[in-house]
Amino acid sequence: MTERALAIAARVEAFVRETVIPYEKDPRCGDHGPSDALVQEMRVKARAAGVLTPHILPDGSHLTQRETAIVLKASGLSPLGPLAVNTMAPDEGNMYLIGKIGTPELKARFLDQLVSGESRSAFFMTEPALEGGAGSDPSMMQTLCHRDGDHWVINGRKAFITGADGAKVGIVMAKSEDGACMFLVDLPDPAIRIERVLETIDSSMPGGHSVVLIDDLRVHECQMLGASGEGFKYAQVRLSPARLSHCMRWLGCATRAQEIAVDYACRREGFGKKLIDHEGVGFMLAENMIDLQQAELMIDWCAGVLDDGSLGTVESSMAKVQVSEALYRVADRCIQVMGGMGVSRDTVVEQIFREIRAFRIYDGPTEVHKWSLAKKLKRDHARAHAA
């Protein structure tokens, strides 16, 4: 690991532990995430501490994925940490995508405000499931776009759009006669209407998750990311690192839950001795140690693959499955160790459990990734036997 990454991660960890964690009890943290006023208040402090958007360097270059891993883990020690230092989804993934695909003009218009932490963004891809729209299978996309002079006109409905309420930048996916397309848009826009904000199990992301109607949205052709029909390819450019970034952040949260559970077990007494001295409790915390270490190793391995220039779709699928399931076990055991305190909101462990449970679904449910990996095994077997 590089000295620069270790130094950045140390500063981020100190900031999260000393400045951000006290905000976890702030009444501005609601069911649909912390308010934008709270986010901006924390970002003012992060900017002053020199830890805002720490994964993007002053010259605009990006830390390697392995370097990013230890920085995002440090930011994730609180559910509010990634928001405070501007490493949270969907902004972190959107910044990565615009940085890779966007023209200089699009970067100046849309990327700069995200890197500076002034604005939030949303990624409009998922559609209502019961209407047959795109979810884990993006090829089912029903949002359509067609050219009208030097503009594109977009119509459709989207669902589970994280942070749409309050976002200033949107990346909208729609299907043209060429295939999938991506457009950068300024928000709010009267043609993009939030129908409702869903009530969901998680509560860490500002704006919550919305169902959105897109009605005759007109976007100038210069706001298309890349070329018409290339949207699914660009989505993979974003999604492979984004899946891994989720793993990094939630590893930080699960590590914090383990710290709290260990502290509780070392202080709480029952049946004549400390809880940690009961094998049933001590073994659960020991299993957590193993799962956390395995998750960290998987993240480091996948990050190395991405740093070597691979698209990393297979590796990120494996990491998403292994890490999300391992961290869920960690959070679940922490709840069990802490008993009544675990299911109460007196500590952040209860929220971490809810957040990591949702992580097993978004960016591809575990079962979809396993199915994709099984298909690869079948293809590899067929090629091997054909040869």
Walkthrough of the structure:
With 387 residues, this protein is an alpha+beta fold. The protein folds into three domains: 3-88, Acyl-CoA dehydrogenase/oxidase, N-terminal domain (Butyryl-Coa Dehydrogenase, subunit A, domain 1, Orthogonal Bundle), CATH 1.10.540; 121-227, Butyryl-CoA Dehydrogenase, subunit A, domain 2 (Beta Barrel); 232-386, Butyryl-CoA Dehydrogenase, subunit A, domain 3 (Up-down Bundle), CATH 1.20.140.10. 51% of the residues lie in helices and 16% in strands. It contains twelve helices and eleven strands. The protein has a four-stranded antiparallel sheet, with no helix packed on it. Strands 3-6-7 form a three-stranded mixed sheet, covered by helices on one side. Helix 5 (91-101) packs antiparallel against helix 7 (231-267). The chain is globular, with a radius of gyration of 21 Å. The mean pLDDT is 93.
Quick tags:
387 residues, alpha+beta, Butyryl-Coa Dehydrogenase, subunit A, domain 1, Butyryl-CoA Dehydrogenase, subunit A, domain 2, Butyryl-CoA Dehydrogenase, subunit A, domain 3, 3 domains, 4-stranded antiparallel beta sheet, 3-stranded mixed beta sheet, 12 helices
Outline of this structure?
Its cofactor is FAD. The protein has helices at 3-20, 36-49, 65-75, 81-85, 91-101, 104-115, 231-267, 279-307, 313-338, 340-343, 349-359, 366-386, and strands at residues 29-30, 33-34, 121-124, 144-148, 151-162, 169-176, 179-186, 192-197, 209-220, 269-270, 273-274.
Summarize the SSE layout with pairings.
Elements: H1 3-20, E1 29-30, E2 33-34, H2 36-49, H3 65-75, H4 81-85, H5 91-101, H6 104-115, E3 121-124, E4 144-148, E5 151-162, E6 169-176, E7 179-186, E8 192-197, E9 209-220, H7 231-267, E10 269-270, E11 273-274, H8 279-307, H9 313-338, H10 340-343, H11 349-359, H12 366-386
Parallel strand pairs: 3-6
Antiparallel strand pairs: 1-2, 4-5, 5-9, 6-7, 8-9, 10-11
Protein name: Acyl-CoA dehydrogenase domain protein
GO biological process, one term: fatty acid beta-oxidation using acyl-CoA dehydrogenase
Domain Acyl-CoA dehydrogenase/oxidase N-terminal: 2-118
